[in-house]
């Protein structure tokens, strides 16, 4: 995600003076609620696990999740690149290619 996109989300919030309402608890709740709305797109889809005919709704809900993640990172003073890169490093240690390739097993089962 570009810095320009992140700044656009923050500007939208700041232009409305909403930062005052954004505490970590409420932002975490909002992320969870928006993620549930994304999951709802797939409810009752049966064997259609892709739901390609619902791509617009998937985009909308995923964007909501991402926007709240930006707001949460900002509120907590976290650099998104830094925390994602740190997580990817930990994941690479837990899921080495030679053990995890083509496997759906959890790290403690490899």
* Residues in helix, %: 55-70%
Tell me the strand percentage band: under 5%
Largest sheet: none
Mean pLDDT: 95
Instruction: Give me the CATH architecture of the largest domain, please.
Output: Orthogonal Bundle
CATH T-level topology of the largest domain: Helix Hairpins
Question: Cα distance, first to last residue?
Answer: 32 Å
Q: pLDDT under 50 segments (min length 5)?
A: none
Give the full name of the CATH homologous superfamily of the largest domain: MazG-like
Number of strands: 0
Determine the number of helices (DSSP H or I, runs of at least 4 residues).
5
Shape: globular
Order of helices and strands: HHHHH
CATH top level class name of the largest domain: Mainly Alpha
| Structural class assignment | mainly alpha
> How many domain modules?
2
From the alpha carbons, calculate the radius of gyration and give it in angstroms.
17 Å
What layout of secondary structure does this protein have?
Layout: H1 3-15, H2 24-40, H3 55-75, H4 80-94, H5 97-100
How would you characterize this protein structure?
There is one protein chain. The chain is mainly α and 110 residues long. The chain has two domains: 1-77, Helix Hairpins; 79-110, no CATH class. The chain is built from five helices and no strands. The chain has helices at 3-15, 24-40, 55-75, 80-94, 97-100.
Using brief descriptors, characterize the structure shown.
single chain; about 110 residues; mainly alpha; Helix Hairpins; 5 helices; globular
Summarize the structure.
The chain is mainly alpha-helical and 110 residues long.
């Amino acid at each position: 995600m570009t810095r320009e996109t992140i700044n656009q989300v923050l500007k939208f919030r700041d232009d409305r003076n909403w930062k005052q309402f954004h505490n970590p608890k409420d932002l975490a709740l909002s992320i969870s609620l928006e993620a549930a709305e994304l999951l709802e797109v797939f409810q009752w889809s049966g064997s259609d696990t892709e739901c390609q005919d619902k791509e617009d709704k998937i985009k909308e809900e995923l964007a909501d999740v991402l926007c709240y993640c930006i707001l949460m990172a900002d509120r907590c003073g976290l650099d998104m690149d830094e925390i994602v890169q740190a997580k990817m490093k930990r994941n690479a240690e837990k899921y080495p290619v030679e053990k995890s390739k083509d496997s759906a097993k959890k790290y403690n089962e490899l």
